[in-house]
Amino acid sequence: MNLSELLNSDMTTLARLARGGFDWWVRELEGLLPAGLVRGRSLTAWHRYENGAVTAASRAGVEALVIPGELCLVRTLTLPRMSQSDLAALVALDADRIMPVPADSVVIGIRTVGPADEAGTGADMLRVQVGALPISRAREIAEAARAAGVVPAQLGPLDAAGERLDFDLAPAMRKAGLLPPRPAVARFWWSAVAVLVLVNIGTAVLRDQQQVDRLQVLVDAQSPALTAVRRIEDRVMGNARVVQALNARRASHQPLRLMAMVGGALPANAWVQRFEWDGKSLRLAGYAAPGVNVVSVLKASGLFANVRASRSEAVAETETGRPFDLVLTPRAEGGA
User: Fold this and answer.
1) In degrees rounded to 5, what are phi and psi of residue 291?
2) Full-prediction pTM beyond 0.70?
């Protein structure tokens, strides 16, 4: 079916395709399981076909119908490892070669026995038991079961241990129209399981989204407070930088210390009228007694890297002393 035919299909056709796809998916999942796990439940009671009649089991709810093994043709084949449905299709396709009778004259059932034991077959090969029942005999068995009110879900001979069927002919008989189709109870429960799984996944995704939304609401509610905290933090850090700069400036600008140093370097008969300090250079202006050379005394002290006269303004000489106006640069280890 191409895309155009699919788009033009009615709901009945789409439902049939969806049901077929779901059945294929279930068969594929079943094919992944070990054969003993899928068909490993032993039969505890069964109906029996003998002498053209079906003997009903003593216990209600029994779905297996056992037939005599001599009615069937049986072969054991070595086939590639694949799902049960693919094995059945492969055997049906090659039935004319496998069985000594035409394929349209028999119904066929298969059972996976286990890995192939023959040397050189490899780990990807299986031993498959194939059983064929003539379709005329299958029709007689189906009519006898219908007369006894038995609708078997499984049909075939017992294995050597007498615990389970050697192979199941019921699917092929249902496909041939000899047995009524099974009720869709299993399909219903599988569908319910699939729906519940999807609901659980959707619920988990929805709850996760709700948790994310609640977390986002909390984040948005704390946004103003966070903004205020960040603003205060920036202000505190700015104040810290200002304090650090003031401390650095205070450490490099100590006028009292510099005044004490200059006072100790000046001669006793000199006094200062102007003391100006800009952090780098010092300007001293004042008077000294006659015969006192202030420049020479300050240079000899070794506290200043540079001592020179300032020519910014002229100060008149008085009777008490001779004026001086100097610009000094303190040494790093002696001044700032």
Assistant:
1) 90, 0
2) no
